[in-house]
Design brief:
Helix content: over 70%
Oligomer: single chain
Structural class: mainly alpha
Strand order of the largest sheet: 1-2
Shape: rod-shaped
Radius of gyration: 72 Å
Number of strands: 2
Order of helices and strands: HHHHHEEH
Strand content: under 5%
Distance between the termini: 201 Å
Length: 208
């Protein structure tokens, strides 16, 4: 009976000693990593109580100290996890705000650049269309045609037409004389050494 109780006490003390070692590691590693630092303070109190109960002979107190350490360690782990989650969300929020601020600054810079931009002034020089030379020729040609038409119309005007009441040709007597002269044989022109018709001889005689 006594040997069995001694073995139970020894096992409880060994288990509490291992739990105290784990609790100390967690307490040291959780520094500045918990959301609520009170959880670490509670773990420290349980460590002190467990250290006092470890060397005792009361198995129930040893077991209670071990249970207290388990509870305090769970609270510390939960606080560490909560802080890690909060830090992650804070980092994401910070990154989002920085991105929004950068986008707003870029938009403002772009707006200011557009407002300060002055479009370059462009000078316009109208094109001077030179009249081709062929048009000048065409004008001259048209002017010549107009003058020719005026001359033609002036010739055809009633003032320049012959009067039908006036004699427009030789008389009947002159026509008969011309026929007689043309029918006469030619004569020899000794001064020129060639034969001439009577019409030409008569014309020369008339001139003399």
């Amino acid at each position: 009976m006594e040997s069995r109780d001694a073995k139970t006490l020894k096992d409880a003390q060994t288990a509490l000693g291992k739990k105290i070692t784990d609790a100390k590691k967690l307490y040291d590693a959780s520094k500045d990593k918990v959301k609520d630092n009170k959880t670490r303070d509670a773990l420290k109190k349980q460590l002190d109580a467990a250290g006092n109960a470890k060397d005792g002979k009361d198995v129930q107190k040893i077991k209670d100290a071990q249970a207290g350490l388990d509870k305090a360690m769970k609270q510390v782990n939960g606080s560490v996890k909560a802080k890690s989650e909060a830090d992650r969300k804070a980092a994401e929020e910070k990154a989002r705000k920085e991105a929004e601020a950068a986008a707003a600054a870029q938009a403002q810079a772009s707006s200011q650049a557009q407002q300060s931009y002055t479009a370059p002034q462009q000078s316009y020089t109208p094109r001077i269309r030179h009249r081709p030379r062929h048009s000048i020729r065409h004008r001259r040609f048209r002017s010549i045609r107009r003058r020719s038409r005026r001359r033609l119309y002036s010739r055809r005007s009633p003032h320049n037409r012959p009067n039908p009441t006036q004699a427009t040709g030789p008389s009947a007597a002159d026509t008969d004389a011309m026929r007689v002269t043309a029918a006469a044989p030619p004569t020899l022109d000794t001064s020129r050494g060639r034969w001439q018709p009577q019409s030409m001889v008569a014309a020369g005689a008339g001139n003399t």
